[in-house]
Amino acid sequence: MKSLLVLSLLALSAGAVEPGAPSPDLNRTLSRVQSLGHGTPTEVEWASAQADLDRLVGEAEQAGRWNDALEATLVKAMMVADMRRDPAGALVILQQARARYGSRQLPAMRKVYVREAQAHGALGDDAAVRRVMEAYKASPYYDPDFYPYVAHEGRNTPISIVRPGAEASDSTAWTAMRVA
Q1: Which of 13, 72, 150, 171 is close enough to 56 for a disulfide, judged by CB 3.0 to 4.6 Å?
Q2: CB atoms closer than 10 angstroms to residue 147
Q3: Nearest 10 degrees: CA dihedral of 97, 98, 100, 103?
Q4: pLDDT (tens digit, 9 = 90+) per residue, 81-112?
Q5: What is the distance between the alpha carbons of residues 97 and 175, in angstroms, rounded to a whole number?
Q6: Which residues sit opposite 150 in a β-bridge?
Q7: pTM of the full predicted structure?
Q8: pLDDT tens digits for range 3-52
């Protein structure tokens, strides 16, 4: 009965991919990469995951799905930085991604800046983190937002703040880089 329910749900959702959502192949590969991070994978398993990500990048680029290609590149950088413990290797991937996709106005581009700042932070290079933050702020991807708050009257009433501690010129990606 459970397998019938699962198959029914899969059949219903098979064609329902939201615009801008990662492809099912990328989600499947991301799940595989995450599961590798929970065990002690062999070099062959890591190489296979990397080859799958490279294949997804190539297919997405050939189809003109640049954001999907960038998302797969980000997964690869995450795998290298977080799971392989090689932030310097991830930096190479991220800097190449910024050079390759930076002029395309892709939604995932903000993540490149955040990941790049995190990698520099992991390497202990505070000056490089600041340079990435300034490059992001000067880029067309910088997304400053005003985060509203509601102050109720009375001593025992709450103040509702969307993002505590955010400056009026902050963006979500900027805050993530500041943490790096």
Answers
A1: 72
A2: 15
A3: 140
A4: 999 999 999 999 999 999 999 999 999 999 99
A5: 21
A6: 160
A7: 0.72
A8: 433 333 333 344 444 445 668 888 898 898 888 888 888 999 999 999 99
